[in-house]
Structures are given as C-alpha cells and as structure tokens.
What does this fold into?
Amino acid sequence: MRTCSREPVSLIPHFLSEMERGLSGRDSSLAMLPSWLNVGVPIPHNTPVLVIDAGGTNFRVSKVFFTGRGECITDNSLICKMPGTNGAIDAESFFNICADYIQPMLQGIDRIGFCFSYPSRITPALDAQLLRWTKEVEVTGLENILIGKRLSETVQQRFKKKVQVIMLNDSSAVLLGGRAAAEKNYSAYIGFILGTGTNCAYGEYNRCIAKAHQYNPEIIQCVNTESANFNKLSRGTFDISFDNTTVCPESHVLEKMISGGYLGGLAQHILHNACSEGIFSTECASVLSRGIIHTSHLDPLLIAGENSSAQYPPSHAAHTEIFTQLPPEDYTGVAHIAGFLRDRAALLAAVIIASAVIKSGQGINPERPVCITADGSTFYKMPGMKQHIEKNLHTLLDGIYKRYYEIVKIDDCPVKGAAVAGLTGQPYS
It folds into this structure.
C-alpha cells in the first residue's frame, strides 16, 4: 500500500491537467461532462415537481416545491431498493420498476428531475446515456438508451400520463441544491459527494467547454468531473488486486480507494492477505473469514484509533461482532489498517475538492468564498473522515493556494438540486 502522504500537492497539477484535457475533448481519465444546466437560474415558486434520486443503494421518489421564501418543501417521499442491486435485470425491467415506484405520485406532475448517480453523458436536450454502471449495480442493455425519454415513454404507455424528464447526475444535483439553499453571495459553487460512491461538480463557462462552444460563452453551467475515474495516482499492490475482484476492473480506480461502497471490501482484502503472510495470528484469520466486512463495520476500529481510551472489545455497535472476536493483540493492528485507509481517502478527497475550487477561478476575495456543498454518508458518518478532509483542505487551500471557501451541509441536498433542475432545466438549442 502507498500512503499518498507526500502526494496531495503534486496530485493537484495532475488533476487540473486531466480537467483541462477533458474539457477540451482530449483523452482524459476525467470525462468532464457538461450537465447543460445553468447555474443561477431563478427557481419558480409553488410549482410541484417530482424528484427521482437513484443512488448507490436506494431509489428515492419525492414530490417537491419551493415556497415564495425560498424554502424547499418535500410533500411526500418513498424510499425503495435501487433496481439492479439484488442481481442482474434487463433494461425493460429497470424502466418498469422505475415506473412502478413513481406511479403513486404522478398526479399533478408534468416535470420530473431525475438525479442519476452513475457515469452518464447528459445531452443538450437534458437526457442521459449511461457510460457504465458502478457501485456493483447490474442492469443489462441500458447502454446507448436515452434514459429520460425511455422512462417518459414507459409512463405514457402504462399510465397514459405525459411527463418531461430532466436528467442530471448526483454531483450536479448537490451543487444546485447548495446554490438553492445558500444564504450568502458566494463566488462559486462546488458539489462534492462521498458516500457509496464519489463525484464532484463545479461551474464552468461555456467558452471553456469544447462541447459548448456554439452556445452563449458567458453562461456558467454545471460540469460533472467524473472524479471517481481519476487514475493519475499511485496504487498499491492490494489496490490493484482488489480492483480485479470488482465487477468493472480498471474503472473508477479512485472511487475504489475512497468511497463507502468499497472501503470495507478493500479492508477485508488487505486483512486476508496480511493474515496469509503471517502478520496476524491464525485465530485472527479465522475470525476475519466468518463474514463480509462492510465499510460501516470499520467505525469502531476508527474510533479506537482516534481515542486511546476506547473500549476493547467494542460494544457500542451491534453490527461489529466480527471485530469483537479479534484477539486483543491483533485488534490494534487491524484498527491501524482501517485508520490508514480512512486517512488516505481523506487526502484524496481533499485533492478532488481543492482542484475544483482552483479550477473555478474563484475564492480570491474573503468576502465571497467558494461554497463547497458536501454530501454523502461516508463524508459525514465515517469517524474522523470529515475532520481529516477539512485538515487537508486547510493545508491545500488556506495554506498553499490561498483560496477562501466554506463547507456547507444541506439536508436532502440531491433531492433539492434535482427539484431545481426539474423546474428550471431548459434544453440547449
């Protein structure tokens, strides 16, 4: 494994270079996909819109509107399992399941904001084409299908209801959600997600985007960096061998080093290899082979690493039985590996965020900082993650690049951002 402890500053120029290459249409690990959603468009008040938030684990449906005071009101909400997470399904089944989920809330709705949290190319017509599945979702035959158009057709065929579907990705939704809820005049907006997966969006002038040169050059639109796929960094032997066990090897290599969908599996992979090399006891190896380690299972190990007085065995979380059975002499080493993975993830997350802030060209004036809207369970719930990211950002942005910024937490941010997109999105023509 490599710690990346000396890499954050040197990684930022590589990340910025990949951003420039992606924007110009050259080969890059960062796709830099236009959202075709303009930042700063006024939001209609008291107009209902249906929101779909298809994330790494859940498929959420909500009816949303904004009041005259700018408050976002969720009228109703339904949380279901993301189609394709319990075994492979085909495209027809996918759209039928989606239609079944939204059918109870279609009354009075003619527009849908669909936050689709998977690598997709958004068209100027605000539809989406899947590039590849991530987060171990398996739906066959969806490539090259216009998702919004197909969902609209399915709803029309099955329920005789006409709806316009506005597609966007999760990081753009987080950016727009932060902008809608902002209480001060920020100079720029960043949307960053660290949950089951990871991604980042920022605002860019059309004149800097090769695919948008024919449109108004002074309009700023959300750009989805697809930061999860950044590959200009050193990976360790275990990173590579773990990657080879996933559904799509060599894809989204950065995401597999920092996101909640993979950190538990990566930890288990490393620990099994450590046991096979005799680093831990045979009893430890036996314990670790008894179940699957999920990312949330690492929490008590991380708490122990941060607090030398933490109790052994950890008893505060019912789902950590696998670690309560570890021999005391092995527990500290296992906790150290968990802490290493968390710290490295925080370093890499800070590189992504800092690069987006720098690329925005804003944050120079302390009275108009950049608004970084952060979202995701791994960012907020993994012990120490938020604090370590903030520490690294302080070093990078406050200390080296001299940029002013604020990290903002917005409840239900992707839902609010998708509502903004559903209400304001207009196809480019």
In short: The chain is about 40% helix and 20% strand. Residues 39-175+413-424 form a domain with the Nucleotidyltransferase; domain 5 fold (CATH 3.30.420.40).
